Amino acid sequence: MAPSPAHSIPGTMLCLADYQREAAQRVDPAIWAWLEGASGSGMARQREQASFARHAILPRVLAPVAHGSTRLRLLGQDLAHPVLLGPVGYHQLLHPQGELATAAGALETVMCLSTMSSVAVEQVATRAQGPLWFQLYWQARREDTLTLVRRAEAAGARALVLTLDTLAQPASHHAIRSGFALPPHISAVHLRDIPPAPTIAGHWYHPALAGLAAAAPVLEDLHWLRSQTDLPLIAKGVCHTGDAQAIMQAGFAGLVISTHGGRALDEAPAPLALLPAMRAALGGDAVILIDGSIRSGGDVFKALALGADAVLLGRPQLHALAVAGSLGVAHMLKLLREELELTMALAGCTSLADITPACLIPA
Amino acid sequence: MAPSPAHSIPGTMLCLADYQREAAQRVDPAIWAWLEGASGSGMARQREQASFARHAILPRVLAPVAHGSTRLRLLGQDLAHPVLLGPVGYHQLLHPQGELATAAGALETVMCLSTMSSVAVEQVATRAQGPLWFQLYWQARREDTLTLVRRAEAAGARALVLTLDTLAQPASHHAIRSGFALPPHISAVHLRDIPPAPTIAGHWYHPALAGLAAAAPVLEDLHWLRSQTDLPLIAKGVCHTGDAQAIMQAGFAGLVISTHGGRALDEAPAPLALLPAMRAALGGDAVILIDGSIRSGGDVFKALALGADAVLLGRPQLHALAVAGSLGVAHMLKLLREELELTMALAGCTSLADITPACLIPA
Amino acid sequence: MAPSPAHSIPGTMLCLADYQREAAQRVDPAIWAWLEGASGSGMARQREQASFARHAILPRVLAPVAHGSTRLRLLGQDLAHPVLLGPVGYHQLLHPQGELATAAGALETVMCLSTMSSVAVEQVATRAQGPLWFQLYWQARREDTLTLVRRAEAAGARALVLTLDTLAQPASHHAIRSGFALPPHISAVHLRDIPPAPTIAGHWYHPALAGLAAAAPVLEDLHWLRSQTDLPLIAKGVCHTGDAQAIMQAGFAGLVISTHGGRALDEAPAPLALLPAMRAALGGDAVILIDGSIRSGGDVFKALALGADAVLLGRPQLHALAVAGSLGVAHMLKLLREELELTMALAGCTSLADITPACLIPA
Amino acid sequence: MAPSPAHSIPGTMLCLADYQREAAQRVDPAIWAWLEGASGSGMARQREQASFARHAILPRVLAPVAHGSTRLRLLGQDLAHPVLLGPVGYHQLLHPQGELATAAGALETVMCLSTMSSVAVEQVATRAQGPLWFQLYWQARREDTLTLVRRAEAAGARALVLTLDTLAQPASHHAIRSGFALPPHISAVHLRDIPPAPTIAGHWYHPALAGLAAAAPVLEDLHWLRSQTDLPLIAKGVCHTGDAQAIMQAGFAGLVISTHGGRALDEAPAPLALLPAMRAALGGDAVILIDGSIRSGGDVFKALALGADAVLLGRPQLHALAVAGSLGVAHMLKLLREELELTMALAGCTSLADITPACLIPA
C-alpha cells in the first residue's frame, strides 16, 4: 500500500539522502525493494554512485557572481534550472495520487511522464507546472506506438523520450526476493488497451529474449517515428557513440546517457564516465542529458562540466513523493537547485555556460 | 557425509551466489572448508574475484538481436553455449551419486571428468548429456598415465585435459583447520590400481617437493603423450605465454589459463588479467579456455571479450549439486546461460564472435 | 556551555588525535557538531584527510643534523616554527576565556585572530605570546571593513588575512541536526556595531546568494584594501592559480590555500594537491600557506616539501583548548613541533629550506 | 613476565600469521604492545604490509624443478636459505632464556644479535646453530663502539650490522599507553658498562634531538669503523640511493633497506618499493638485504625478485619464541623455507638466481 505522505516537510530533510532515508522508513518493504532494486548484482548502480566521487570542483574567488542564474533553453523551452524529472513508472505505489502529485510538485521544470504511468497523460497534463514530456516504450505494433504518440501530443507533451535500453530487462533479485507484485488497483494505464506483443520466435534460449523480434525497435523504426510526429525526439539509454550518431542522423534532437538507474545491463559503466566522449562525438548542438545517481547540486555541476545539458532524476522524486507528496517533490527540487547555485557561485560560475571541464580537477 | 539434495529447485536460487550461500548451509563444514579453501593466504583467489570488477560492458541499442545464439564449435564439437563443467574431484562428497548426478545435469555442455573422480569414467559416460572430456593427472610411470588415457578413450571421451599446475599443491589452511579427511567410502577410483610414485630424491628440503622428479611432466612428456592418442589435447593451468607456445608446438589444441581456483600458487595473478597477452601470443586458432571465479553471465562475457573461447566452472557445479542434485546443476547452467544471453543482447551481440575487446570499457 | 578544561595535561595526550578524542568527550554535542561539521556531505574534508597519505617521506642517514632548527622568517617576522594558529571563530564555545586562553598558549608562533572572535582584538593582543595577525571578513560597506582594519592595526596586528572563500557558506548538516545555536553570551564582538549588509537583489533563487552583491569582494576591492593599510596582506581560501596571480598583482604578500576546513565548497579538492601548481605559478617569493587536516609533524613536513612556507591549524587548537586550556594549546603545539623536528632529523633536513619535493616519494 | 613457551608445536601453527595470533594470546599485553608497536600513527608499518600485495607471481609449468635449492653464498658464508633472523632487542621479554633460546632454534641460518640483547654475545655464540652476526648501535664515544666490536669479534661474529636509522626513535604511542617498562631483571647487557652519552647541546627544541651530536654517526665514522675491523660491514636502515652509494664507498659490503619495522620515521615508504632503484644504483655485487613485514615464502620470493639477496625477519622470531621457544623458531623458519621452495617450484625457479623481476606481474 502506498504510504501516507506528511502534510509538511519534516525539518530533518536537508539533502536528497535525507529523503531517501526517510522514505525507506515509510515505504512498504516490497515496494522499497522494487524502487531501490537494480538488475543482477547491482554493479551498474555501484559504478554510477562511485563515478561522481572521482571529480572535485575547483573553487574560485573574486568573481562577481551576484547576478548569476541556472536558466537554460532546452528543446525550445525556457527552464529555470537543469534538473528534470525523468520517467519512472507507477508513482501510485508511493503516493495515492501518483503522478498527479508528482506533477503538482514539479515546479519550474520538465516532468517526463512514463509510458508505465499509473495515471493517464491527459490527467497528468492538467496538473503539470512546467513542460510535460512523454516517455515512450516501443510497442510490438507500430499502430500501438502511434496511439501513444498521439495521446501524448493531444495532451500537450512538448517532447518524446524514446527508451531504447530495455530490450530485455534483467530481474532485480532484491525485488524478487521481497515478493514485490503490482497491487491490482495499480496498472500501466496507457497500455490497458494495447494487446500483448505477438511472439516471433528467435533463436535465444532465454524466454525474455524469445519474442524480441516483435518488440525491439531498430534504426528504421526511429526514422519512421521521426516521420510521424513534429515533437522533438530524445533517445534514452544510449551509451555508445556510434549508436548515438546513428540516432542523431535519424533526426533526433538528442539523447539521455543512461543505464536505466542500474536496471538494464548489470555490468554497464557509469553514465558520467561516458559523457566527455559522447559530447566530443556529437558536437555542441546535440542535446545530451544524463541520469543515474545524481543526488546533489555538486553532482549536477559535474555532469554539466563534463558535457551534459541537463540531468534527469529518477528515484529521488519518488523518495520525496513518499515522504511529503507534492510538497516533498517541490522541496527536493528546491534543495538540489540551491545546492547547484551555491556550487556555481563558489566555483565562480554565473551561468550554466560557465560550467566547463576546466572547473573540475581529479579527486 | 554428503548432504541430501532437494528434489526441486528452491525458489530463492536466482543466481550462482544463491547456490553458494545455500550450499554453505547444507554441506558439512569440513567438506565445505575443503571445497571453498584455497592455498595459503587465499590471495590468488581474492585476485580472481577482483579481476572481473575492473571491466564494464558497454551497452548497445538498436541492434537487431532477436535471432542471436550462444552456439560455438569447440574441438570439432557443436556446443549450445560456452560454459563448460571443469574438472573437480570427489563429487560424492557433495552428493551420494557424485559425478553420475553431475553428468545427468550437464545439459547441452561438456563435462570434464577429473582423474580424481569418485565414480569411474566408464559409469559416468553412461549418464553424460553432452561431450565428455577427461582430465588427466600425470602419473609417475608413463604406463600408468597411458592406462588412464586408454580408459578415457574407451569410455568415449572426446578430449583430454592435462593438468600442469599442481606439480606440488600448497595446503589449504582452511581445510586443514577444519579437520577435513576423505571418508573411507570415497576415493579416486581411477587411481585405485596405480602404485604410488617411486620417490627420486631431489635437493629440496620441502617433503612435498622431494619426489617431484618422478611425477612432474616436462615438455618431452607432452610430445610423448601427443604420440599416444588421437584425442585433442588441452593443457590446464598455463599462465605464461612462453610455456603456452611450447605446449602448442607439442601439438596441443589449446589450454586453460587457470590458477586452479586459487589452489596452486597462492600468489598467482588473476587468469582474466592474463587473457589478452595469451591470445596475442597464440593467435586466433588456438583454443583458449579460462576458469576462476566465473559466477555470472557478465563474467563469461568479459572472459570471451578478452580472448577466451569458452570458460570452465569449478566450485559452482558442486554448490548446485549439493543444493539440488542433477536438477541443481542443470538449473545453475541455465541461469548462467540466460545471463549470458541477456548480456549479449544488451551489448548488441548476436553471436560469440561479436564479443570483442571493443565491448568492454574500464570500470 | 563551554567545558571546564583540565588544569594539567592528561598523560594520554601523545598526539593531536588524542586531543581530538578527548575533546569529543568533554565538549557539548551540539558545539562538537558545529566544530567538527563540514559543509554538505563532507566530501571536501574527506579529501583533505586522504591527501596526506598519498606521500611517504624518504629517510636519510649519516647527515649531521644535530644543529638543525625549524626557524623561519615570515612576513618580516622571525618564527620558531612553521605551525601557525589559523583563524577560527568563537573560542568561548570551547573555553570560558575563549581567545584569551588560546593566545596565552600560542607560544613562539603566530595567532591569527578571527573577525568572528568572541573576544575583542584589543584584549587578545594583551595576552599574545607571539605576533598577532587579524583575519578579515569583507563587510558590505567599505567603511565597516576599514573600521576592522584600523582596530587590528591599533591593537598591534602584524598582518591581515582576508578570507575570500565564504562568499556563501553551505550549511553543515551535522551542525543543523545537532540543534547548534550560539548561546546568548557569546557573539562576534567585532561585528557588534556593524549594521547588517543592505541586500541588493541578485538573480539567484537561493536566499544565501540573494544579497551577495553587497558583501562579496571583487578584485577592485583588494586594490582598495591594499591602498588603505601598510600591513602585509594575505588572501585566504585561494585554490585557483589564476585567482592567485591576480591577487598577487593587487599587492598581496601571499595566500592561504584552503577550503575552509571543508566548510566552503563541499566538492573542493584537497589543498595539499593544489600546492605544487600554486608554487610553480607564483614563484619562490610569494608567501604560500596552507591549512586543512594537518594533524602531525609529518603532515607539516609534506606541506612544506610540496611548496608551503608554513601551515595553519584550525580545529586542533580548539580541541586542545577544550581539553586543557592555554596549557593544552601550548602542549599541542609542542607535540607538533617535536614531531616536525623528529621528521626533519630522520629525513636528513636541518632547516626548512632542506625540505623539498625530493624528500617525498609516492606512498 | 615472559610467557611459558609450549614444549611442542601447537598443531594449529600453519603459517607465520598463526604464530602471531597465538603469541598475542600468550604474551603480556604491555610486552605485546612494545613488540607490535610502531612509531607514531603506524603509517610506515601499514605501507610495509600493503607493499607485498601489489605484486603477483607468474606461475610456470613444465620446468624440471626437482633438483632445486634455496642455497646462497652471502658474505663468504654458505647458507641453506635466504631468510635470516634480524636484530631485535630483549628476547627475554618473550622467553626466560631469551636470545639463547632463539639461537638454538636458528637452524641453518644467520642470527644477527642485537646490541640490545638481553644475553651477552659470548653466551649466545655458544648456542648458535649457524653464522652469528652482531648488530652494532653507534655509541657516543668511539672507544665504546670499539669495545662492542671487539666483543663481537672475539665471540666469533662473522659480520657487523651497523644500524643507522635510529638517530632518534619516535615513541610508539601504543607501547606508551600500555605502560610498558623493561622489568628490572632484563637489560641491554652489552651496554651495562658503557656510560651514557655526554650531551652536546644542539639547536633543536625536541629533547630527543638535543644530544644527537655525540651519538649519531656520520660518514667519517663509517670510514673509521671500516679501518678498525676485518669483519664484513653491513649498514642497516638505508633507504636513499645516495646514502647507499656513500656507504659502499666507505668499504661496506652492503646494506639492509629497512624502516626499522615501522619504528623509525612514521611516514617512511615501504622498503620493498625502494628495492629496484637501490639495486640499480648499487649494481649486482653489493649485498642488499631487506626487512619489514615479510610473513610468507611469497613475500621472500618477491623481495628477491625485486633485487634483494636475502631477507631479515624481525617480530616473527619473537612470536615463535613466545609460542614454543627454540622449537617454535626452528619451525617458523621451516614453514617459511618450505613456502619459499613451493613458490619457487611453482614459479619454475630452481635457484635463487632464477628469481628475477620477470617472475612478477602487477596484481
From TrEMBL, chains A, B, C, D:
Keyword Oxidoreductase included in the entry's annotation: yes
Keywords for the protein's UniProt record, in alphabetical order: Flavoprotein, FMN, Oxidoreductase
SUPFAM superfamilies: FMN-linked oxidoreductases (SSF51395)
Molecular-function annotations in GO: FMN binding; oxidoreductase activity
Active site: 260 (proton acceptor)
Residues that coordinate or bind FMN: 87-89, 114, 135, 163, 236, 258, 291-295, 314-315
PANTHER family per the UniProt record, alphabetical: 2-HYDROXYACID OXIDASE 1, S -2-HYDROXY-ACID OXIDASE-RELATED
Protein name: Alpha-hydroxy-acid oxidizing protein
Lineage: Bacteria, Pseudomonadati, Pseudomonadota, Alphaproteobacteria, Sphingomonadales
